[in-house]
Design a protein that fits this description.
Layout (H helix, E strand, L loop, with lengths): L2 E5 L3 H13 L3 E5 L2 H10 L4 E5 L1 E2 L2 E2 H10 L8 E5 L4 H9 L4 E4 L4 H22 L1 H8 L10 H19 L7 E4 L6 H11 L7 E5 L8 H6 E2 L11 E2 L1 H4 L4 E5 L6 H13 L1 E3 L6 E3 L3 E6 L3 H6 L5 H7 L2 E4 L10 H16 L5 E2 L1 H9 L5 H15 L4 E2 L1 H4 L15 H6 L3 H15 L4 H8 L3 H10 L3
Parallel strand pairs: 1-2, 1-3, 3-6, 6-7, 8-15, 8-16, 9-12, 12-15, 17-18
Antiparallel strand pairs: 4-5, 10-11, 13-14
Helix pairs in contact: 14-16, 19-20, 20-21
């Protein structure tokens, strides 16, 4: 469905166009002059402009010229209607950037077909806006590395779910992935996308924790022109852009309560409405949500809506931490060695037996993400084709003071400042089950400062 602005002074002709387009499901606004049309462009949401050339107060091509020179509306599709097949007007219109032109007397079937092509072009344009995201995940197939029984079972579970969803033509179930920070929830979501028969459709990753609080509603749901200050042109939200591909809502537990209600409405009705609009768009995307937080506990504390939790948790998948699947550490480490070596054009080093032992004995509070960073650093530092424990730079668990021990202060006093800082970060993340925002608050840090230190220590 499109918001169509028709600038046409011939009443009978305009009425026939309005009737036909409204019957096709479009919303049509008609203005009879250039002045009124200019005002409508500034105050109303417009997806496409049908513009007559000969108007009482001037030439429609002048308005087309102004539209193409205005940054806020230069991409607006404009179909020019020329009188009596005037070839000169048609040529001039196309030179000025008209999307298409039609001749009077107008074939209404041809008009409907033209609008349909414009609608399809808009959809393709939205997909191209997010092509970088798709290319990032599309150059190389997603791999779920692991030989532990836990990961083999998880792969079978995901394949079973995908096979069921492939058979569904209508509504698709929502999947909720639970797991600590760094376990690879995004990899699981991308694998679900690639296993499905919708793998060639958009994949939109929404990090709910990273979106600024003042912009999150507009980014998720989109907005119409004039919906708020600086909304100079309409923009589809990330939910709408996902179309019939995959929408991955990462860290969904970070959504504010007021937006949780709006997201629930979208998931229940499968319709999304942009800010400042009265029109709703169908949501056909396969929705995957992920969280490192205990949503049940948040529900009990009144910080997460129970109805949204039950709607998200239709198919729950628990992604175990790396310390619970020690068999996967070595194949993951070898995979990362190959990836890093390929990236930097290096010969792939091997792990010494003592390095393998160090990897297995480490407790991996940062999970797979920490392992990836540790391996990348070790590859860069390795010499003579081998990675040693010294190049891994893993902090021995024995150096960490156990909670409740009386000699805790004496152990801390023997540690460097960086070791103490890393320890504090790890303990805070353990206490909060990997909730970065809460850990940052406990330590008196901003989320950005917390993220910086987590990157610094590969957490």
């Amino acid at each position: 469905m499109l918001n169509v602005l028709l600038i046409e002074d011939e009443t009978l002709f305009a009425k026939s166009v309005l009737r036909r387009l409204e019957r096709e499901g479009h919303r049509v606004t008609r203005q009879e002059s250039l002045a009124a049309g200019r005002e409508a462009l500034l105050t109303e949401p417009v997806d496409i402009l049908l513009l007559d050339v000969r108007l009482p107060d001037g030439n429609g091509l002048d308005l087309l010229r102004d539209i193409r020179s205005d940054n806020s509306s230069k991409d607006l599709p404009v179909v020019v209607v020329t009188a009596y097949g005037d070839l000169e007007d048609a040529v001039a219109a196309m030179k000025l950037g008209a999307t298409d032109y039609l001749k009077k007397p107008l074939d209404l079937d041809e008009l409907v077909l033209t609008l349909s092509k414009v609608l399809q072009t808009q959809k393709l344009s939205r997909q191209l806006d997010y092509s970088q995201v798709r290319e990032t995940h599309g150059n190389e197939p997603v791999k779920m590395i692991g030989r532990s029984q836990l990961m083999l079972n998880l792969r079978q579970q995901l394949e079973h779910i995908t096979a069921l969803v492939d058979k569904s033509r209508d509504e698709h179930p929502v999947i909720l992935i639970n797991g600590e920070t760094g376990t690879g929830k995004d990899v699981l979501a991308r694998l679900y996308h690639e296993l499905g028969n919708w793998r060639n459709r958009p994949y939109v990753h929404v990090d709910c924790a990273a979106l600024p609080s003042e912009l999150i509603e507009a980014e998720l749901f989109g907005y119409e022109r004039g919906a708020f200050t600086n909304a100079h042109q309409a923009k589809p939200g990330l939910i709408e852009v996902a179309e019939d591909g995959t929408l991955f809502l990462d860290e969904v537990g970070e959504l504010p309560l007021e937006l949780q209600a709006k997201l629930l409405n979208v998931l229940e009705r499968r319709l999304v409405r942009r800010l400042g609009s009265t029109r709703e768009h169908a949501v056909k995307a396969h929705v995957v949500a992920a969280t490192n937080r205990d949503l049940k506990k948040m529900v009990a504390e009144g910080r997460f809506r129970s109805d949204l939790y039950f709607r998200l948790n239709v198919l729950g998948i628990d992604l175990p931490p790396l310390r619970e699947r020690a068999e996967d550490i070595e194949p993951l480490a070898e995979y990362f060695v190959e990836a890093v070596s390929r990236r930097y054009g290096l010969l792939s080093p091997s792990f010494s037996q003592s390095a393998i032992t160090a990897l297995r004995e480490y407790h991996w509070p940062g999970n797979v993400r920490e392992l990836q960073h540790v391996v990348e650093r070790a590859v860069m530092l390795s010499q003579q084709g081998q990675i040693t424990p010294e190049q891994l730079m893993l902090q021995s668990q024995k150096q960490y003071p156990a909670a409740g021990q009386s000699h805790e202060l004496s152990q801390l006093s023997s540690m460097t400042l960086e070791q103490v800082e890393k320890l504090l970060l790890e303990k805070a993340l353990e206490r909060t089950n990997g909730n970065v925002s809460r850990a940052a608050r406990e330590l008196g840090l901003t989320r950005m400062a917390m993220r910086y230190r987590m990157e610094k220590y590969q957490l």
